[in-house]
Specification:
It is a single chain. The protein is an alpha/beta fold. It folds into 2 domains: 149 residues, Leucine Dehydrogenase, chain A, domain 1 (Rossmann fold); 62 residues, NAD(P)-binding Rossmann-like Domain (Rossmann fold), CATH 3.40.50.720. It contains 7 helices and 8 strands, in the order H-H-E-E-E-H-E-H-E-H-H-E-H-E-E. The strands form 2 sheets. The protein has a 5-stranded mixed beta sheet. Strands 6-7-8 form a 3-stranded mixed beta sheet. Strand 3, helix 3 and strand 4 form a beta-alpha-beta unit. Helix 4 packs across helix 5. It starts with a helix and ends with a strand.
């Protein structure tokens, strides 16, 4: 129900386009976009440092591949579920289409929080995730990337594990480290892009980012890259947060 409410909210938000773009509101199109094309849910057994077998759940939702292969990140967090990934996959389809990319939309991950595990456990779980998900990932079908809880470290483990199943595993993931064929600047791109959008919005309203005071929600890769670019553009970052709390400094 939450997913359908989210989809409904989206279509309400673009209602002003109904007169100029009536084809967007064709009943068949709305019905098609209201449900994902495929849902994958697996149980992932893996061994912790104490030798105990643990069970987590892995997910991958492919919302649409009309424009091209499914594309979207993997999220490792303890509170994720299929409904969340359905919503995120829907949004990914819309984002990729808006950017005019030849890519569909997908999202996935597992109810596993790397912050609560050792580096060795993170590696074993990432490998186990691929052992159960590898049939669904390749450059022509579904190309994952990182997201919350999945950095280039976890991606590196997954790409290495894919070597057991694919001849060219590095083509099946984006967000890789440079040593695996990643692209320079990829790590910072999302955070930088956020600030460029903020800057463009302010300039459109005859305002400037310079000397503006900014609070950023988060302290991960996107947030820290955004903070770095904000400072470069002359803004003053006065606050950051993470899952454990927030920090505020009025002088930046």
């Amino acid at each position: 129900m939450l997913y359908l409410e989210h989809v409904g909210t989206f279509f309400k938000s673009i209602q002003p386009l109904s007169k100029s773009k009536p084809e967007l509101f064709d009943e068949a199109i709305i019905q098609y976009l209201s449900s994902p094309q495929r849902l994958i849910e697996v149980r992932i057994p893996w061994q912790n440092d104490a030798g105990k077998i643990m069970i987590n759940h892995g997910y991958r939702v492919g919302h649409s591949n009309v424009l091209g292969p499914y594309k979207g990140g993997l999220r490792f967090r303890e509170n994720v579920d299929l409904t969340l990934f359905k919503i995120l996959a829907f949004e990914q389809t819309m984002k990729n289409a808006l950017a005019q990319l030849d890519l569909g939309g997908a999202k996935g991950g597992a109810d596993f929080n790397p912050a609560q595990h050792s580096p060795a456990e993170i590696k074993r779980f990432s490998q186990a995730f691929i052992d159960h998900m590898h049939p669904y990932f390749d450059q022509n079908q579904d190309v994952p990337a990182g997201d919350v809880g999945v950095s280039e470290v976890e991606i590196g483990y997954m790409v290495d594990q894919l070597q057991h199943y694919q001849a060219q595993p590095t083509t099946s993931f984006t967000g890789k480290g440079l040593d695996q064929g990643g692209i320079p600047g990829r790590k910072e791109a999302t955070g930088y892009g956020l600030l460029f959008l903020v800057q463009a919005h302010l300039e459109r309203h005859q305002r400037r980012l310079n000397k503006k005071r900014i609070i950023i929600t988060g302290s991960g890769n996107v947030a820290l890259s955004a903070a770095t670019k904000a400072v470069e553009l002359g803004a003053l970052v006065v606050g950051l947060s993470d899952s454990s709390g927030a920090i505020y400094h009025p002088h930046g």
